[in-house]
Amino acid sequence: MTEQHDAPSWAAVFNDARNKSVQQQKTARLYIIASVLIVSAVLAILVPVGVQLSAQYSQAQIARATDKEAASLSAAQRRKELAAAHKYNAKLATSGQSVMGEVYDPFAKNGDSRSETDRQYQSLLNVAEGVMGTVSIPKISLKLPIYHGTSNAVLAQGAGHLYGTSLPVGGTSTNTVLTGHRGLPNALLFTRLDELGKGDTIYVQVLDRKLAYQVSRVVVVNPDQVKPWVTVRKQQDLLTLMTCTPYGVNTQRLLIIAKRTTLASTGDDSAWVHDWVASAVIISLAALLICLGILLRRLLNRTVVRRHLAPYVKHKG
């Protein structure tokens, strides 16, 4: 005798379809909420990065404009500016450098700007709107304008020349000190300076002169231990980069000490700055698009399922 099975009733089918539809709608809502949270998290990361990249690109543009402005000066004007800068450095080397920086520590938040009140200093190497020249570091895709002094306003825009140290024109018995912030939310500046190591090259361009310096030492000191490292050393041609460390804590100072070396051909440095910024922007946009793509795909899948079930649910109702 053949065993018979009861077929499910239409009511059971409709109820099951309705329950599945309700459950899928709830699941879809959860996916939407989760996707929105994911996209928001990605944007929270990408937006500050985008702001920093935009600032770095703008600073590189200012630096290149400064180089072009310097190139437009006559040969006689450039010689006059360089001669005045070398004379300033020679006097500085024999003075003992009793006055250095805006205050004792350029990253301190108090104290007046000594550099801004020194008219002679401000007039030297004033190529364009307070900009002396440019500093380029290929290893970290950095090109910044060099401004007079290290006031808060200056350090928010680019690299600041530490008042009381040698002007960035090179020569024996000179030590040019450039400072910059790390970890600003709206600009990279010297954020990646800790990636430099012995043997890396730094370029400084002032007027029509491009100088190359090779990193010889990396040191970390307390703020009250900085001065011996940033003073002139006889018969040496040095460049010192200074920033805060550890990242986000800023209780010490990171010093990158570099010695003058032979200038090698570097090509158009605007290329590597532009390429690095472009690559970072593309990667950031790709990450955002992937998240949006996942969100749209899940939403479309849920929409298709609901369309198939809708006639049954509507008929039952």
TrEMBL record:
Transmembrane segments: 30-51, 276-296
UniProt protein name: Sortase
Family annotation (NCBIfam families): class_C_sortase, sortase_fam
Molecular functions per Gene Ontology: hydrolase activity
Annotated active site: 181, 244
Superkingdom per UniProt: Bacteria
Entry keywords, A to Z: Hydrolase, Membrane, Transmembrane, Transmembrane helix
